[in-house]
Amino acid sequence: xxxxxxxxxxxxxxxxxxxxxxxxxxxxxxxxxxxxxxxxxxxxxxxxxxxxxxxxxxxxxxxxxxxxxxxxxxxxxxxxxxxxxxxxxxxxxxxxxxxxxxxxxxxxxxxxxxxxxxxxxxxxxxxxxxxxxxxxxxxxxxxxxxxxxxxxxxxxxxxxxxxxxxxxxxxxxxxxxxxx
Length: 180
Known about the structure:
mainly alpha
């Protein structure tokens, strides 16, 4: 059955047996081409493995079935980023955030997509919101400081980076932050 194939795929994915997971998810999709959990998980495996072109049609089908799903929109946004289709990624991330506004990773990814499309005001707004939601999302400080530098606003960038390094002296990207 579809559920049995999906469950086997899920179990294999959790064990790290991705080839087996792909086989079972594919079998589930062959049985029901609109079974969203299998479409999402198989799409995720393909995208993680560096095959966004294989992930895209799976997640687009999942979107047709569940257009308001956080997981579908978020994962499709990630695929669009990997395909450098930033306008599409922004639309998916915005939909995902409308469903789940507390998702920090999605908010960060939306900020990155705005940066890639040079929509710096939107990027600043999203990254500032992220820091307000989670004052320990350290990479948001770094990206926001980079935007300030790009805009020629050295003082705000310095204040932000000083705050970052004071709050988290062991920040993994400390050297990059200090170079700015």
